[in-house]
Amino acid sequence: MALEGHEGNAPEENERKTREYLESFKQFDNYFVETKVFRHVKELLQTEGIAIMTGFPGCGKTNTAVHLMLDKTYESWTKHMIHTWKDMSFLKSDKNTLVLIDNIFDGYMYSQELERWWDVFYNIFYESIQKSEKGFVSISGGKIRLLITAKENIIETACAYMSKPSPIFKSSCIVNMRNMELTNPEKDEIFERQMKYAEEVKDIKPPVEDMNKNSKFREDIRQSNGPIGYPLCAHLFACNENYRPMGSNFFSNPITYLQTEISHEISNDSSQRTKTLFLILFLNELKNRSTNRDEHVGLVEDECKKFMKNFLDDDLQQLQPLNFSKLIDIAIHYMGTLLSGIEKSNIYRFKHNTIYEAVGDYLLREYFEYIVKVFPLDILETREFSMCEETQCDALVSRFISEVNKGNVSKVFACKALKCHTYAERFCRYLSEQTKSFLTAFLATTDLPSGFPLPPTFWISKHGLSILTILLFEMMKEKDIDINLHTYFSVFGELCAKEENLLKMSKEQICENMKNTKDIVLNYEMHDGNSILHLVVQSELSDIQSVNRVKRFIKDANQRKKHINIHKENDNGEFPISTAAKHDKHSRILTCLALIHDRIENLQETDNNGFSPIHHAVSTLTTNKSINALELEVMVRSAIFMVYSVDPDLPNNKNQKALDLCKDSPYEHVRELLYCKMTDQHEMSNLIQARISRIKIEYEIKNNLHITNPRKMIRKELMQAIRNSISILCDKDLTKQL
To answer: The pTM is what?
Structure first.
């Protein structure tokens, strides 16, 4: 295989480390239960040469892979644990080789590394894995088999982003462990084996009450559905006597108990060695995740001190007291429970990612402002920080702003905390206090690590931060910052979130000129035929934000040298006006009027099911309990469509009129309006005003708001009723009672 790779004895060194790693698992592996999932994966590996396990934390992906690596079938095979695409150069097609790639692609999204993996996999498949009629024989006669584990959905995301198939990631070779649940007998055997492991290896005495015979306890843990998988829960429960009193509750909420245990172990060690050890292992793992490597710090005092000083730039004072002596003794104490490793090579790591996360939670609780300021951004990414004090919130937001200015744009907006309204609001408040020149520069900052020269407004939408998107654009408007191009960046982010491969496919255009984003957005069509207008009207935007985008896109599309028709129907035969008509989360009155203004003819056109815009509007009334906000919205939408000649008596493909779709619902006021003559705007306005009068909330009429009146067909009386309705509904959630 002609790959850029390693020189010297790197392959032999990897093979040695792999042997040591597997050797360190042998004792624990003696208690492994060969489930139907294991047997299926083993068969895949034999028949396809590739087996890929995906699933949620603790479901047993790595343990299953290791058990296969130790299986007698592969006793004489060369074995490699691979961490980077360059490591694939170790593989030789003239030797029987079993390869384990654990937790593949974690951290690779949107990097060139992913493309290199694709190329390497392509070569290795056709040179060394592909089946002939006689089985696994490559052109050169070698035999290589790949065993891969991955987090849930990461394979799908990578394949979507690359937009080209890989022979490695065939659906027939992927086992989603969530879809292959353990049977009750398998769960029972896993629990019994882990209790036996705890007793025989860890010398943890069984409880006085035999849990193996407690039928209620066993049934409760079989039915538990916690955030981590049953195999890991069973192991943690068996190997810690402190969990035993929790009974089956532990299996439902293991993370809370694990966090408590980490705090307990650290606080109960007055020598500070446990804290120091966990801190070193945490930082080492954090570094490996940031660099996509698998390096380890030997737990020798001088080496640990040097590692810590280099990692934290000599700034250790905030973390004191620390004690670097005799850390190996502490590591040996936790082997098999919280840690795994290779004792003879002095290599230790956390036994599972859940334990790593629990240590991170402890560090953040104890040293929040220091950690937020100094540690790599990766530690902040998965945490929501829901219980922070005001000063802590400010520290976190300050770090986010600082990292964006350094070009780590995508990583910042991948942080879960920014999904929360509190942090989104503080983020925008911080920006609003800065100068206009600062804001302009901030909003122009492009992401460096991904290689895509796109600004914050793109990445905020790409990562689904809808609250932050709304607040940021409101602030930009207040600060008189031109939002034209940023609107396109934001929408392009939404498109890329829906279709991962769009980002990669558009890279050349974007790198050539960021303004090409406009053409990408305006010409966009989803796999289901939805245009950019379909996407906007069904988004989380308020009606005012939605109509502003709709008007902008219509205007820009009409001004292109080659006129772009963005009013086209999707695969269901729906035009954007119909999609707006059936949106049931936010008001779309202003949006509907803008769409009618640009496409006033042919509003009677129906979709593939014979639904007119009125059918779609009325179809949102599906709740058994009348919701006044939704009812008022549907009344106004229906009245508008009737003014513009959409006949409510027009039947759909099932011969249903609009009235038939709500005849059994509690929305009597909608039914009354549908009985009106299409020309009777006076009666329509009276009905709408009567419905408004029953809504007991205070509201301010938005007299300054421009409301489109296509061809001036809406008369003054009805227009006032529409304005009053918009004043109430424009920023409300239609699914909630007013």
So the answer is: 0.81
